[in-house]
Design a protein that fits this description.
By secondary structure, the protein is an alpha+beta fold. The chain is built from eight helices and eight strands, in the order βαααββααβαβαβββα.
Length: 211
C-alpha cells in the first residue's frame, strides 16, 4: 500500500487530474459536463482551482503513487473564495459553468457556519478502488481530527456514504438531487470522544471494507 503524504505545489495539476479520473464514471460527472469529449478536461480544470486553493487554506493529502488523494479546507473561520473564481470557473467549464455554480449553491446552502474541517474531495483512481486506499486516507484524516475533537463536514456521492458512515459521519440535511439520477448527501462528523473513528475503521473479523 502506498504511503500518505502532503501534496507538493508542483503536483497540484496531477492531483486535479486524478480527481477528474475518479469522478468521471459517476452520474454527477455526466450531468456537470454532458459532452463526453470535454468531460475529463473540464473536471480536471475545475478541480485544479480547488486543489490550488486548498494549498493556501487547507490540506491536500495523496498516496505517494498518486492513485488517491483528498482535498480539505480549514474552515475554522470564514475563508475567501478562490481568487477570481467566477472568471476562472467560466474559463475552466465554459458552457457548463452554470451547472458547477448550481452545485456550489447546493453546498453553500448546507455548509455549517460553525468551525469545522471541510473534506472537499476524497478520490481514488478507478483502477485502484476497493483495495483500501480510500480507507487509508479516511483513517489518516480521522486520526488528525480525533486529536483536536474538531467536527468535519462533507458532501458525498452515494458510493462514498458507507466509508464515511464507518468513520463516524452522519447525514446532515436531506439528500440533494440536482438532476434526475444525480444525488449528493451532506454529512457531518462531530468531534470524537472515547472510541476514535480510526478504531472504527479497522476491519472486524467478519467484515472488511475496501474502496
Amino acid at each position: 500500500m502506498a504511503q500518505i503524504r502532503g501534496a507538493r505545489w508542483a503536483e497540484k495539476d496531477l492531483v486535479a487530474a486524478m480527481i477528474a479520473e475518479a469522478l468521471q464514471p459517476a452520474p454527477i460527472a455526466g450531468w456537470l459536463v454532458p459532452d463526453e469529449e470535454q468531460r475529463g478536461r473540464v473536471l480536471a480544470d475545475v478541480a485544479a482551482i480547488w486543489v490550488e486553493h486548498a494549498m493556501f487554506y487547507g490540506d491536500v493529502y495523496i498516496c505517494t503513487d498518486l492513485t488517491a488523494g483528498m482535498v480539505c479546507f480549514h474552515r475554522y473561520r470564514p475563508i475567501p473564495p478562490p481568487a477570481n473564481y467566477t472568471d476562472r470557473l467560466a474559463t475552466a467549464a465554459g458552457p457548463h459553468a452554470e451547472r458547477f455554480r448550481a452545485l456550489d449553491d447546493i453546498m453553500d446552502s448546507r455548509q455549517p457556519t460553525t468551525a469545522h474541517y471541510h473534506l472537499a474531495y476524497l478520490a481514488v483512481r478507478p483502477a485502484y478502488q476497493r483495495n483500501g486506499r480510500g480507507r487509508a486516507l479516511m483513517t489518516h484524516l480521522c486520526s488528525r481530527l480525533d486529536l483536536i475533537e474538531l467536527p468535519s463536514w462533507t458532501v458525498t456521492l452515494p458510493a462514498g456514504e458507507r466509508l464515511l458512515t464507518r468513520a463516524g459521519f452522519q447525514a446532515d440535511h436531506a439528500i440533494a438531487r440536482p438532476a434526475d439520477g444525480v444525488a449528493v448527501q451532506p454529512m457531518m462528523r462531530p468531534g470524537q470522544r472515547g472510541e476514535t473513528a480510526t478504531d472504527a475503521l479497522r476491519p472486524a473479523s467478519r467484515r472488511n471494507l475496501q474502496v
